[in-house]
UniProtKB/TrEMBL annotation:
This is HAD family hydrolase. Pfam families: Hydrolase_6, Hydrolase_like. NCBIfam families: HAD-SF-IIA. Keywords: Hydrolase. It comes from Hydrogenoanaerobacterium saccharovorans. The keyword Hydrolase applies. GO terms for molecular function: hydrolase activity. It comes from the Bacteria. Signal peptide: none annotated.
């Protein structure tokens, strides 16, 4: 734990680490205060594409945490950055929420239901059969299929719910085309996060609740890994994976010590 506390930078997941739905988790206030008191560099790097950085800032403020928008980077932003580099001015058909729509719009990407270059799928409360049919139609006509993240499930106040991978799976199965997944553990997210922090990988740690995304992302990017059991992973499930986190904690409140 001393080595973890000595790190200059922290990349931290949000769902299952900072909050469940609209309920802040125990020890989070103390953890965030510690980050500021120790002048640590930190970034909330979330696979959830539903909210903009401003919305995340406001959500935490409502919970009693004041965190500047510059400390957030979402899979929606990573997806928009990727498409803007691959095909500037691209046209996309989107299944998602405001965070994804806004990120794409800000990068000059046109949202359309007519001959799109890409079909982009993120978390979506408006997900329905009609959207699936439209997406399948566009992929059959040559649109490339992209998913904002590979999370199959996500934690909420009501329990575990389907996440992005569960929503894109029917499109993959019908079209026979596998989506390209942008979010963690894709190195695109991690490289951007480290660049935003301005620290080397060996000077940073990643804190998350998922073995299949957060911990893999950290291991493959050279960061120390901290698994918290406040989200979707239990201690018993850790042994099912061929890799292990450096540290396992009940929650982020144990980090300040």
């Amino acid at each position: 734990m001393d080595k973890i506390r000595e790190k200059k930078g922290y990349i931290c997941d949000m769902d299952g680490v900072i909050y469940h739905g609209n309920r802040i988790l125990p020890g989070v206030v103390e953890f965030v205060n510690w980050l500021y008191e120790k002048d640590k560099k930190f970034l909330f790097l979330t696979n959830n594409s539903g909210k903009t950085p401003r919305q995340l800032h406001e959500k935490l403020a409502w919970m009693g945490l004041q965190v500047d928008e510059s400390h957030f980077y979402t899979s929606a932003q990573a997806t928009a950055d990727f498409i803007a580099r691959q095909m500037p001015g691209a046209h996309v058909f989107v299944i998602g929420e405001p965070g994804l729509y806004n990120a794409l719009y800000e990068r000059g990407i046109t949202l359309t239901d007519t001959n799109p270059d890409y079909v982009v799928v993120g978390e979506a409360t408006s997900y329905n059969y009609d959207n699936i049919c439209r997406a399948v139609h566009h992929v059959f006509r040559g649109a490339r299929l992209i998913a904002t993240n590979p999370d199959l499930t996500g934690p909420t106040e009501q329990g575990i719910v389907p996440a992005c991978r569960a929503l894109v799976k029917p499109i993959e199965m019908v079209t026979g085309q596998e989506a390209y997944y942008i979010g963690k553990p894709n190195p695109l997210m991690m490289r951007t996060g480290l660049n935003m922090l301005g620290v080397h990988s060996n000077e940073a740690a990643i804190i998350g609740d998922r073995m299949d995304t957060d911990m893999v992302a950290g291991i493959e990017s050279g960061l120390d890994t901290v698994l918290v059991l406040s989200g979707v992973t239990s201690r018993e499930e850790v042994d099912r994976f061929p890799y292990r986190p450096r540290v396992i904690l009940g929650g982020v409140g144990e980090i300040p010590g």
